[in-house]
Q: What sequence folds into this?
């Protein structure tokens, strides 16, 4: 898949939560597609190793250490990308966290923690990236990593599911608001992806169910029509497509990448 812009200048992408999992696979994939990639993450150690992985494959890259739960840090991170490379062509809002606990035990602090990073940050990072893209008058791409939890709700992840439903809504509002600037905005709703987040979720669900984490995960995978978890690369491939010239007529969509477990 070629880069977004096919001129002599390297297009620039920002991937949040890029130190591991889906974000890391996305950063590697976009670098292979020809983007210079800024990797933003809270975890400095894993961030350095992810940046090395991109650089070792001849990708142009920079590490930005930031806690994106803070809007000041969101602003600083996106400004740093513009200062480094003087442009911004694609933003992938991937950083996210979940809290898995029974509905009746969710506290106001849990709600704030999840909604601030998983929804508020997505909105304001999108807004700031859009301003930069509009100022240059160039085509742009924004891809938000939502979740199938945002489609159907979760009994033990209510704030997370609400945030991800909000991400789908923000995606559609932004797509409408930014279409005249040739900025497309799409969401991806992964299903069960083979990452540290999934392992953490099943450790907690296993305790509730009184089974092993492996058994909890096996039961979940048993419900997936394609019979396996997604790899981070499966999600990165969809991001790559949305960031490609081939996707220039697609905006405001939410694509399930879930092996068929969710079909609406
Ligand atoms: N794993 C799944 O099954 C799954 C399913 C659907 C959606 N998702 C979504 O995909 C995205 C990535 O998930 P993953 O499974 O790769 O997660 P992960 O936990 O493996 O990785 C998340 C990354 O985000 C970073 N991060 C967390 N909080 C941050 C903060 N405040 N500021 C900056 N960086 C921060 C972490 O350090 C980590 O590197 C999330 O938005 C998640 O909700 C994951």
A:
């Amino acid at each position: 898949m070629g880069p977004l812009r096919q001129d002599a200048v390297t297009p620039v992408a920002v991937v949040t939560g890029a130190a591991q999992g889906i974000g890391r696979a996305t950063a590697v994939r976009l670098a292979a597609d020809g983007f210079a990639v800024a990797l933003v993450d809270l975890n400095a150690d894993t961030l350095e190793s992810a940046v090395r992985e991109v650089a070792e494959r001849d990708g142009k890259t920079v590490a930005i250490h930031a806690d994106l739960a803070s809007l000041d840090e969101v602003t600083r991170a996106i400004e740093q990308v513009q200062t480094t490379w003087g442009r911004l062509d694609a933003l992938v809002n991937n950083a996210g966290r979940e809290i898995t606990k029974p509905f009746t035990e969710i506290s106001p602090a849990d709600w704030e923690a999840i909604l601030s990073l998983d929804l508020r940050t997505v909105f304001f990072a999108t807004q700031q990236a859009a301003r930069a893209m509009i100022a240059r008058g160039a085509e742009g791409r924004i891809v938000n990593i939502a979740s199938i939890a945002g489609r159907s709700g979760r009994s033990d992840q209510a704030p997370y599911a609400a945030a991800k439903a909000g991400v789908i809504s923000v995606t559609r509002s932004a797509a409408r608001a930014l279409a005249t600037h040739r900025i497309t905005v799409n969401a991806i709703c992964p299903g069960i992806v083979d990452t540290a987040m999934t392992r953490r979720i099943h450790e907690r669900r296993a305790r509730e169910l009184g089974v092993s984490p492996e058994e909890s995960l096996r039961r979940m995978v048993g419900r997936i029509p394609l019979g396996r978890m997604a790899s981070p690369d499966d999600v990165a491939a969809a991001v790559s497509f949305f960031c490609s010239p081939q996707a220039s007529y697609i905006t405001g969509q939410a694509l399930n990448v879930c092996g068929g477990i969710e079909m609406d």
